[in-house]
Amino acid sequence: MSKRFFIIDDDESVLLVLKSMLEAQGHIVTGYSSSVKALEDILLDPPDCVLTDIMMPEMDGVELCRQLREAGLHKLRILVVSAKIYHTDKERALAAGANGFISKSRSHPDQMMQDIMSVFSESLSLGFWGCRGTMPVPGAGTIRYGGNTACVSLTFPDGHVFVFDAGTGIHRLGAHLMRMGKELTGTLLLSHPHWDHINYLPFFTPLFIPGNQFEIVGSRHADISLEQLVANQMDGVHFPITPRELGARISYRELGEGTYTIGPAQVRTMLLCHPGYCLGYRVQFGRRSICYVTDNELFPPDSESYSAAYFKMLSEFVHEADILITDTSYFDDEYPKRIGWGHSALSRVLEIATVAQVKDLYLYHHVPEHDDEAIDRMLQEAHKRLRDSGSETVCKAALAEEMIVLQA
Ligand SMILES: [Zn+2]
Ligand SMILES: [Zn+2]
Fold this sequence. Notes:
Elements: E1 4-8, H1 12-24, E2 28-32, H2 35-44, E3 49-53, H3 61-70, E4 77-82, H4 87-95, E5 100-103, H5 109-117, E6 123-130, E7 151-155, E8 161-164, H6 170-180, E9 185-189, H7 195-198, E10 213-218, H8 226-231, E11 249-254, E12 259-262, E13 265-271, E14 279-285, E15 288-293, H9 308-317, E16 323-327, H10 346-355, E17 360-364, H11 372-389, E18 394-396, E19 403-407
Helix pairs in contact: 2-3, 10-11
């Protein structure tokens, strides 16, 4: 469908190239070399999308974006285009309300068109590449729900991909992303550095590809930096390739508890109840919220370790989430022998999901002893308990490599 674009760039040649590319696809394009004149015209009659250069003499692209949002143009798609690829520029543009940030310099024209048009796509795609805890368990008993350890992906309309944890599932995610055949920009959000959450990072092929860009985020572990946590397993002894040999551009950002702009989303973090430093994530994009909360122990109220304050904090953290992916390691009768191991039993999770009015709850971090039939049983038990308690939460277990599309 034909769209109306305004392109603002003081570089005439870039303006002409972009204009002819979009017009060749049947779109209606008006070009501006002055951002001030463009602002006047946008306010009078907004187009579908504004493509603005970041560096301009009168008013830069970020300021233009801020003024358009302040004027109440919330539905207008704004893409900031830059010849440079500085992370801070992108952060500034997204914080000012841009829908995306496109680099002029490294994109193939077809790729650039795809990046521009993706601003009109509103869907998020969530992929489950590994839902197991502790260790991978391949075999006949784990075919339906999969045998790989922790890895979930979330792809945004602009193509940015979030990867939660780097268990063995990340290898298959890597193959999936490589098939898309384009330069990737992504964020790897680590919950914590236990093996089942980080040890397949060196097998994530996109990290080896020059042109790809990844930010690795997570908590430091007391005096060990996040970068060291990742590098220690790739020290040339435990794995032959060191982080320096990875081809992609990789940066690290240590997170505490707070709210951050990461890629195109707002991300809140919370320290979970687990040995060491373990972060839970709440991702907000448009009206959608997705929580990734593993590994986590919810102590029962009769336990000495029970904390009403923690239960309240966590239920507020996941409040009204569209999707909560969380540690449901044990059936209730398995839990008493595993108290203090850092993982939760089913009924406690159902309780918090119900109190927090979570919409879809995904069972996660299945223990090695649970085969497909055990997960079926856990699902049935969850459905019954939720029905009996009058909860509106829907409990699910993702199938191996299941992809879910969410309208943003
Ligand atoms: Zn784990
Ligand atoms: Zn753990």
